[in-house]
């Protein structure tokens, strides 16, 4: 420290600042514009300041039933979050030992991650359509469709969130000291006790991170849901539909509200992660303290 | 025995993930491949072998020569958008990652700045697209600024709902996918190698080209694969930012699906996948060849 910075530092720092401005600038513009006055339009200048467009959203007048889409997306996001955490942690633990098909599962996860979303979406839509056709042909009583938010929609979201969850688990266990588990085992802990009292507390901050990815990726997911969600829409799909029809700032108000949820979740997750890490530091190691 | 039991437990732990991928990824991909070779009419698919999905897609391609048919034009255009987005995200992503990895010295700042780049990734893509409208529209800030300074007499029309805005939005949305893997590669570079290059008399530029970039190659390739697959299959960004005027490989599939022509959509998906895999294969090969030299 204290050493003089080279000139390239200032050039690159300016570049980085410009990049951050590029990332956030446009978003901030619509957050400001969502507080347009009642006569305001889609662009600057601000024509007064008001909450008119937000109250319009909540009143449910004007555009489609946003409240319902909001609740649907929230519910789906929470389910995706919980499943992503459980399935990823479980699979992450599996990858620490060797099992048949480990590399196969890994490559499938990567393929699912980089597969163009429209193809995954098409595949799931096709799968459910064929299932429906089959069920109807074979006279299943009262069958209409198996497609829906918590069947095909949930599956589509998991193909997107699980690869991220698995990669985060890999990152965690790359830095994990396996001797801790051996020590627990030597002290007579069962595998479950080892996981519950040794492994889980250590990886918990990153597991919260997996939850954060699970929720936010699902909350904002659009391309994979587009064909595979069935008759009802999630919030991002409603938003996309609105881009072509809306000429009033309601769409910005909706955008601001949607982002507010994202930011709230990010904020909460980061707080929890920081608290957990602080607690780990406090209780973490008693090395060098001698025998108590 | 113990070993067997351990690996059985591990297998059990991996089953939930395997089941999800089997039912929502592998089986759907298999069905896409099978249905792409089915027949269809205006309103339903017919489970009989037919290559109509493919022949319809390439209709007029040979008869129309030397003019390019719609499908080839669309793919060329998608490739062009892809190439533009790729080069811009690579340039910006590498520079940002380089700054984060080599110039930010304290760990805390590194985490804070990385988070700053990551947070938009956790917010909605559609909102990040809409966000350009008040800036680039006919009466947007950019046009007002240009008119105000007298640089132009009439509002610039190509700022929004054009290929320009599509590429801008794609770069805006997906540079993150370059930053993370490249940062990951850069952070692992042994700093002593750079010192050694410096001691041996290499200039900053020479160090970058001969030491840093070759060592960052895995990150560059991973980032490139992300960006290329996303852009090749994109239909949302192109739809919203292109104002419905620009065709792309992903949009063809969407259009076919909206017309309920599943076999045709599936045939297009297979073609898209084939092209994407070829690009990825070429990319990894180019990198490997350079490694050999």
Describe it.
- The complex is a heterodimer of chains A (292) and B (293).
- With 292 residues, chain A is an all-alpha fold.
- Chain A has two domains: 7-50; 64-279, MetI-like fold (Orthogonal Bundle).
- In chain A, 73% of the residues lie in helices and 0% in strands.
- In chain A, helix 2 crosses helix 11 (250-283), helix 3 packs antiparallel against helix 8 and helix 8 runs antiparallel to helix 11.
- With 293 residues, chain B is mainly alpha-helical.
- Chain B has one domain (64-292): MetI-like (MetI-like fold).
- Chain B is 73% helix and 3% strand.
- Chain B is built from 14 helices and two strands, in the order αββααααααααααααα.
- Chain B has helices at residues 2-35, 52-57, 70-103, 107-118, 125-130, 133-136, 141-148, 163-174, 176-187, 191-199, 204-233, 236-241, 249-258, 262-292; strands at residues 38-40, 45-49.
- In chain B, a hairpin with a 4-residue loop joins strand 1 (38-40) and strand 2.
- In chain B, helix 3 crosses helix 11 (204-233), helix 10 crosses helix 11 and helix 13 (249-258) packs antiparallel against helix 14.
- The radius of gyration of chain B is 24 Å and the shape is globular.
- Chains A and B meet through helix 1, helix 3, helix 4, helix 5 and helix 6 of A and helix 1, helix 3, helix 4, helix 5 and helix 6 of B.
Topology:
The complex is a heterodimer of chains A (292) and B (293).
Chain A: H1 7-33, H2 52-59, H3 66-96, H4 102-114, H5 117-137, H6 149-174, H7 179-186, H8 191-219, H9 225-228, H10 235-245, H11 250-283
Helix pairs in contact in A: 2-11, 3-6, 3-8, 4-6, 5-6, 6-8, 7-8, 8-11, 10-11
Chain B: H1 2-35, E1 38-40, E2 45-49, H2 52-57, H3 70-103, H4 107-118, H5 125-130, H6 133-136, H7 141-148, H8 163-174, H9 176-187, H10 191-199, H11 204-233, H12 236-241, H13 249-258, H14 262-292
Antiparallel strand pairs in B: 1-2
């Amino acid at each position: 420290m204290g050493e003089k910075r080279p000139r390239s530092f200032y050039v690159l720092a300016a570049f980085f600042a410009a990049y951050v401005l590029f990332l956030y600038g446009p978003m901030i513009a619509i957050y400001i514009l969502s507080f347009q006055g009642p006569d305001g339009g889609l662009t600057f200048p601000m024509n007064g300041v008001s909450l008119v467009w937000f109250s319009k959203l909540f009143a449910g007048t004007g555009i489609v039933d946003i409240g319902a889409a909001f609740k649907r997306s929230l519910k789906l996001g929470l389910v995706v979050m919980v499943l992503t955490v459980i399935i990823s942690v479980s699979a992450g633990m599996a990858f620490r030992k060797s099992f048949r098909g480990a590399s196969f599962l890994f490559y499938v996860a990567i393929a699912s991650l980089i597969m163009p979303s429209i193809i995954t979406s098409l595949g799931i839509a096709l799968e459910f359509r064929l299932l429906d056709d089959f069920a109807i042909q074979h006279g299943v009583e009262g069958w209409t469709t198996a497609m829906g938010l918590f069947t095909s929609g949930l599956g589509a979201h998991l193909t997107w969130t699980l690869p991220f969850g698995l990669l985060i688990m890999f990152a965690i266990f790359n830095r994990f000291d396996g001797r801790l588990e051996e020590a627990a085992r030597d002290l007579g802990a069962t595998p479950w006790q080892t996981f519950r009292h040794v492994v889980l507390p250590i990886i918990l901050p990153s597991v919260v991170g997996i939850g954060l990815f699970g929720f936010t990726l699902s909350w904002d997911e659009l391309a994979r849901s587009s064909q595979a969600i069935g008759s009802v829409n999630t919030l991002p799909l409603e938003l996309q539909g609105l881009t072509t029809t809306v000429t009033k700032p309601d769409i910005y108000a909706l955008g601001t509200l949607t982002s507010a949820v994202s930011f709230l979740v990010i904020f909460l997750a980061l707080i929890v992660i920081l608290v957990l890490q602080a607690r780990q530091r406090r209780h973490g190691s008693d090395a060098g303290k001698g025998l108590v | 025995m113990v070993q067997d039991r351990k690996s059985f437990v591990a297998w059990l732990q991996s089953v939930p993930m395997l089941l999800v991928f089997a039912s929502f990824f592998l089986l759907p991909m298999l069905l896409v491949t099978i249905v792409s070779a089915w027949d269809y009419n205006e309103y339903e698919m017919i489970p009989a072998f037919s290559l109509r999905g493919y022949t319809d897609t390439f209709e007029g391609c040979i008869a129309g020569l030397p003019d390019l048919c719609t499908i080839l034009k669309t793919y060329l255009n998608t490739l062009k958008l892809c190439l533009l987005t790729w080069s811009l995200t690579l340039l910006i992503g590498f520079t940002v990652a380089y700054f984060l990895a080599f110039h930010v010295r304290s760990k805390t700042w590194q985490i804070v700045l990385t988070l700053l780049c990551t947070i938009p990734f956790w917010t909605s893509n559609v909102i990040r697209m809409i966000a350009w409208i008040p800036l680039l529209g006919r009466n947007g800030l950019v046009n007002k600024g240009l008119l105000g300074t007298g640089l132009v007499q009439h509002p610039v029309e190509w700022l929004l709902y054009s290929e320009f805005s599509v590429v801008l939005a794609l770069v805006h949305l997906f540079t993150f996918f370059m930053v993370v893997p490249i940062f990951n590669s850069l952070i692992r570079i042994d700093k002593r190698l750079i010192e050694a290059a410096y001691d041996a008399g290499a200039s900053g530029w020479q160090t970058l080209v001969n030491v840093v970039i070759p060592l960052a190659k895995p990150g560059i390739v991973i980032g490139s694969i992300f960006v290329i697959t996303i852009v090749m299959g994109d239909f949302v960004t192109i739809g919203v930012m292109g104002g419905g005027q620009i065709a792309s490989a992903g949009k063809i599939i969407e259009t076919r699906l909206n017309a309920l022509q599943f076999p045709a959509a599936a045939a297009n998906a297979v073609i898209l996948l084939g092209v994407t895999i070829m690009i990825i294969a070429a990319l990894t090969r180019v990198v490997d060849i350079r490694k050999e030299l």
